[in-house]
Amino acid sequence: MRFERREQVSPILALVTPLIAVAVALLLAGVLIALAGAPVFEAYGRILTGAFGSRLAATETLARAAPLILTGLAAAVAFRARLWNIGAEGQLYLGAIAAAAASALLFGNLPGLIQIPLLFVIGAVAGMILLLIPLWLRLKFQVDEVVTTLLLNFVALLFVSMLIDTVLKDPMAFGWPQSLPVSPEAELPKIIPRSRLHIGLGVAVVLAFVVYFIQTRTAFGLQSRAAGLNPSGAAFAGVPLGRTLVLVAMMSGGLAGLAGAVEVMGVTSYVTTELSPGYGYSGIVVAMLAGLSPLGVVLAALFTATMFVGADAMSRSMGVPSYIADVTVALSLLSMLVAIFFTQYRIRK
Amino acid sequence: MSDIIDILTSAGLWAAVLRIATPLILGTLGALLCERAGVLNLGIEGVMTFGAMIGWFAVWNGADLWTGLLIAALSGMLFGLLHSGLTVTLGLSQHVSGLGVTLFASSFSYYLFRLLVPVEGTPPKIIPFQPIRIPGLADLPFLGEVFTQTAPTWVAIGLALLLAFVLFRTPLGLAIRMTGENPHAAEAQGINPMLVRYGAVIFGSALMAMGGAFLTLSAFDSFIPTMVQGRGWICIALVVFASWRPGRALAGALLFAFFDAFQLRLQNVIGGVVPYQIFLMAPFLLSILALVVMARRTRVPQALMQPYRRGER
User: Residue B27 falls within a domain, yes or no?
Assistant: First the structure.
């Protein structure tokens, strides 16, 4: 048995690939649900109703999708250029704490119309800085950025933990380590009143289109893809590799930092070390499920958010640990990898 | 200053160095073996977590400690098989496959743990490996305390020496190193690079899982999710620091553990002035520093991260 590269990848196959991957992941997760002694189909039914069964559930799922779209875009943008940014989690936290600090200490009195965009930029810049460090180490010392971005996640989380324990600690929080809240003007307006669904979702979706436009319609987009596909060939063709990677890192880190700012301004209004249930890592799965396509990221993020919100509800009523959502999401990454392979290769006897 | 001298001359510090180093030694050796054959295994963090969980669970269920360690190793082999299936047979990106294995293995261990162990106020405990008093040595002042360690620590040190011997003194080691440098040349010599990579990743992952199991079976007595705390990533950095040599991996892990044990004690002295998070950051910043210092001075296995397909260049 051997594998032979397909001459062309059929577009229909490429489109159904994520669906097949998700189906396989759900099938495997079904085995684990059965292991917990719960009826599998009913469990999946409960996940769906848990995620979309009521107005509250649906708005919660959509609100959960917003940071996942942003971290998914962060990973998709970077992976296209073969910049292995696994540090979105840390970048998210740094973006969140920067936005909270800027609002609480400096710009709290500015009207929302000015303050909100300003905090978005500050959060994004904080994320950028955290990714530019490992990129600099790669360009200057040839240090693999996978490991450094992973290690910096822990550093960033500890740094945030230190700040909310000391200088940024909220004195009104009864001793809990949480940051000063953002000012009321900085809280994101709701799309639907009396829900958690805030305009961050709109921002994320618009940015998905912006990234799509940049990648397909600008010279920089072409260069960043070329840098990923064939770095030496791209360099030979005159693509400034270093500069392209810096710009890619600024986009990727910026999107992840923005995810943190959006989360703190839209949902929690203050930062704790539990702000993100691994949005940065889930973003990698979202990007892969989307086949690194920016518009696909929106759909993949919606699927991931559905699993997380739905599994929470299902686990409360059926006694299946809610970690089933994490398992399913991880399994869909693995099956997506295999599925992508079979769109590019066929088996020959 | 005298505080620091007190810390450095206490036998407790040096005993802690060996204890803290053990999971790092095992994890680093595992990652090193995979990389010598040309496969980066970022599944390490998840494999360590799963090893910690399943080894602990086996013992909690009545197995003896060595059986627990063995079961952990076997679970590591299964994840190794998964990672090599993805990266060797299918030739997928080693970065993304490894991260996938980590995400799957860690969430799967949390899921199983929740499912198998009834939720209680405090996590249930086992009786872990006890320190062994070596007759004669144990009665010496200072050294006696330093070298009174649990059995897995000695196993880890022994495995470092064994791996060094196998890699550099046996035909098998030559085959592994050749596969990591140039699989095409290896195949021309009648070696099956695919098979070598499978073997290296499977056994390397077994070592990683044993490193995780040390945390629950020896260093501590219960399983807590997220207890691996980035140790796997530190091991990946240590492999570079060690220039892919088992002896230096042992030394690197010990050096690292020294800084860790030292900072823990330093916290008691100056902890009131400096936030504790600074101390906790130290291992991660040190790992990055180690990467920067070594990245240009060492020679990476030339075929690392390159999939091998017969007849394809």
Answer: yes
Report ipTM (2 d.p.).
Answer: 0.93
Residue B175 lies in a domain: yes
Residue A2: list chain B partners with CB under 8 A. 310
For range B39-67, the mean pLDDT: 96
Domain positions in chain A are 64-285
Q: Per the domain annotation, does B258 fall within a domain?
A: yes
List own/partner pairs for A338-341 with CB under 8 A and 24 or more apart: A338/A21, A338/B86, A338/B90, A338/B92, A339/A17, A339/A18, A339/A20, A339/A21, A339/A24, A340/A17, A340/A291, A341/B90, A341/B91, A341/B92
**A3 strand-pairing partners:** A347
Residues of the domain holding B235: 10-119+133-295
Nearest-Cα residue of chain A relative to residue B83: A334
Which residue of B86, B92, B292 is in closest CB contact with A143? B292
Confidence of residue B311 (pLDDT cuts 50, 70, 90): low
Residue B195 in any domain: the answer is: yes
Q: Would you place residue B312 in the very low, low, confident or very high pLDDT band (cuts 50, 70, 90)?
A: low
> Tens digits of per-residue pLDDT, B146-163?
888 999 999 999 999 999
Tally of domains in chain B: 1
